[in-house]
Amino acid sequence: MCIIDYSVRIGGEELKINSQFWYDNIIHKMHIKNNDNEESRPVWTGFANNDVGNTMQIAVCDDEKIYLDMIKGYLKDCLASCDDDFFVNIDTYTSGESLLDAYNNGARYDLVFLDIRMKRLSGYDTAKSIRSFDNKAMIIFITSLVDYIFSSFEYKPFWFLTKPLSEEKFKYVFFKALSEIQNSRNKVYSFFSRENGLVSLEISNIIYLESALRRINIYSNTQQFTYYASINEEEEKLKKYDFVRIHRSYLVNMSYIQRINKENVVLKNSIVLPLSEHRFKAVFDNFTSYLARCSV
After folding, report:
1. Is 57 exposed, middle or buried (0-12, 13-18, 19+ CB in 10 A)?
2. I need a surface site. Which of 90, 137, 191, 258 has the fewest CB within 10 A?
3. Dihedral sign, CA of 52, 79, 102, 182?
4. Residue 27's pLDDT is what?
5. Residue 20: which region, alpha, beta or left (left: phi > 0; alpha: psi -120 to 50)?
6. pLDDT tens over the chain, length 296 residues
7. What is the distance between the alpha carbons of residues 268 and 150, in angstroms, rounded to a whole number?
8. Strand pairing of 264-267 and 257-260?
9. Based on C-alpha coordinates, what's the Rg of the chain?
10. So what's the pLDDT on residue 45?
């Protein structure tokens, strides 16, 4: 189950709210459950933050209440698809000053949704100060002016959302951020699939990835999933976990390689995948190095 807790800060005062529908009746806690069949539920392994345990911290900062409520609603819908035990704390702020006050008092966030145009302290200035506290928080800027995007890279944003907010785009960006946070904390590979929601797989159970028409087919010991991504991006994420690119369309976990031939790679489950001629030496060298490390 997903336990969600959130608070609102206005003028430096905190109003602690726990609500089944985010801004309706006040109750002690809210448990979101997915009532779909077990087979269709997304797999989620939670978080491993040393400071707060199995908790994800999210901040939403916007001086327009309509967007605060909209983002909270979108987050509720996203988190409803996460079925395993973990905790989400969502704090909302109506100004950059109140968000920075929270940082000054020790608050830290995994993910920050930050409006750029605010009445007093801008999102840029707020982000600049956040970076003096925390270089790891993922910042997603929200703006009504696309031109602002090009001035924001020095603050290391993760993504941008433009007003009016599209729920579909919001969910895409949120789950992308969620998977990045998960991947950075555990030896777990996370991605968002339209059919299965947020999926997290133990990296040791992934056999190989296949690229086809801007989609990735990922094959594990027990299941296959499909999601939208670039094989180049996936290679960058997985190469540190002993995955090797054997072909423009294939990325393979070397722990599953049985042998390498001139034109193909044979896996331990007898699957044969093509090996590009120009990649042969690099693949062979990587594999022999991997075997040497494993034998130590």
Report:
1. buried
2. 258
3. positive
4. 21
5. alpha
6. 555 555 544 333 343 333 322 222 222 222 222 233 322 223 333 343 334 345 789 999 999 999 999 999 999 888 887 655 568 899 999 999 999 999 999 888 999 999 998 988 999 899 989 987 777 789 999 987 766 666 656 677 888 898 889 999 999 899 888 887 877 666 788 888 888 888 888 888 899 999 998 899 999 988 899 999 999 999 999 988 899 999 999 999 998 998 999 999 999 889 999 999 999 999 999 999 888 776 54
7. 48
8. antiparallel
9. 22
10. 35
Alpha-carbon torsion 253, 254, 258, 260, what sign?
positive
49 Cβ partners below 8 Å, 6+ apart?
Answer: 55, 56, 110, 185
Task: Judge contact between 231 and 239, C-beta under 8 A.
Answer: no
- CA dist 193 and 181 (Å) reads 17
| DSSP alpha helix (H) spans, 80-238 | 96-104, 123-133, 167-185, 231-238
H helical segments located in 80-166? 96-104, 123-133
Helices and strands, counts by H and E, the chain: 6, 18
The dihedral formed by the CA atoms of 126, 131, 135 and 140, expressed in degrees to the nearest 10? 20
Sheet holding 206-212, edge to edge: 224-228, 215-220, 206-212, 250-253, 243-247
| Cα(293)–Cα(198) distance, integer angstroms | 33
What amino acid occupies position 208?
A: Y
Q: Which helix (H) or strand (E) segment is 64 a member of?
A: none
- 266 by DSSP, 3-state: which? strand
Q: Which is it for strands 86-93 and 2-10: parallel, antiparallel or unpaired?
A: parallel
Q: What's the whole-model pTM score?
A: 0.54
Which of 61, 70, 49 minimizes the C-alpha distance to 78? 70
Place of tokens 């996370």: 190
Token pair 């109506």 is at which residue? 94
